[in-house]
Write a structure and sequence with these properties.
CATH topology of the largest domain: Beta-Lactamase
Order of helices and strands: HHEEHHEHHEEHHHHHHH
Shape: elongated
Radius of gyration: 20 Å
CATH class of the largest domain: Alpha Beta
Helix content: 40-55%
Number of helices: 13
CATH superfamily of the largest domain: Transcription factor LuxR-like, autoinducer-binding domain
Number of strands: 5
């Protein structure tokens, strides 16, 4: 049975407590304790178990700007994530598409078969999360910052009322975050122009192409990337402007060329290659 989120410390936006916590956020802009002040303010609106802030830019490996995990949980949520799973994260993909700044549930941006995808079953389920919502904003052209609030275990999903509370706070969260992390773009290589940004393929496509170069065609590369991201054959057909039957033919040909027989094997091959032997490897968290 799902347990309700704790309500004892929830004060609501517009209260005196919220105003005090907001003032602390403003005072902390540019200081090391800003992320903690921001999370404390958000916890006064809704209850959540964990929070993590990632910065994304094109083909660069993401940066972890802040998290509230224990060392053990950090291994899955941050260290393992940065070794490769971020490529298939719906929030990472949404930032790559540069969706409008705002607050989103995971289900708002996930592909139609995300919860049946091998990424979800093989990696995401390890997090034990019951719900994840995310503030997305852009401190500079092409650079995104994603602030995730997470509930785990038997906790309930964020209710419509809680989403309204977070939604009403979104403009403030975005403004504060942009002011504090205004230096994030300097941590990435921003030499690629906006026009080049629009022309490059998705990070997943680039990775698939590099891994299987010469073994599958450019169109098959697109299909593989979308299969890995959690799109159904219907969704892939719509995205690529081809028939569902053609997508199925591509999938059969891909499996034959790679000498595999299932989506699970495709996922395993993909992550074994990008992580150089599974989830192990060097820690890339900041």
């Amino acid at each position: 049975m799902k347990t309700p989120a704790k309500q004892s410390q929830i004060v609501g936006e517009g209260s005196e407590t919220w105003a005090v916590l907001l003032a602390k956020c403003i005072d902390a802009i540019g200081l090391e304790n800003f992320p903690i002040a921001l999370i404390d303010a958000l916890r006064s609106l809704v209850e959540f178990d964990y929070s993590v802030v990632f910065a994304y830019y094109q083909n660069e490996r993401p940066l972890c700007l802040f998290h509230t995990f224990s060392q053990k949980r950090r291994l899955v949520f941050v260290d393992d994530y940065l070794k490769g799973p971020y490529l298939l994260d719906p929030f990472f993909k949404a930032c790559s598409r540069q969706i409008d700044p705002g607050l989103y549930r995971l289900s708002d941006v996930a592909p139609d078969r995300f919860y049946q995808s091998e990424y979800y079953r093989s990696y995401y389920i390890q997090t034990g999360l019951s719900e994840e919502v995310c503030f997305i904003l852009y401190p500079a052209d092409g650079v995104a910052v994603a602030i995730s609030l997470m509930r785990s275990g038997e906790s309930t999903r964020f209710s419509p009322r809680e989403m309204r509370l977070l939604g009403s706070a979104t403009p403030v969260v975005i403004s504060l975050t942009q002011s504090h992390w205004r230096d994030v773009p300097e941590r990435f290589d921003l030499r690629t122009s906006a026009n080049q940004q629009r022309k490059i393929r998705s990070q997943t496509e680039n990775t698939v192409s590099a891994l299987f170069s010469g073994r599958i065609s450019p169109r098959e590369t697109q299909v593989v990337a979308q299969v890995l991201e959690g799109h159904s054959s219907d969704s892939i057909a719509k995205n690529l402007g081809i028939s569902v039957g053609t997508v199925r033919i591509h999938r059969r040909n891909i499996y034959a060329k790679l000498r595999i027989s299932s989506q699970q094997e495709l996922f395993s091959m993909f992550f074994k290659k990008i992580t150089d032997g599974g989830w192990g490897g060097d820690t890339a968290a900041q």
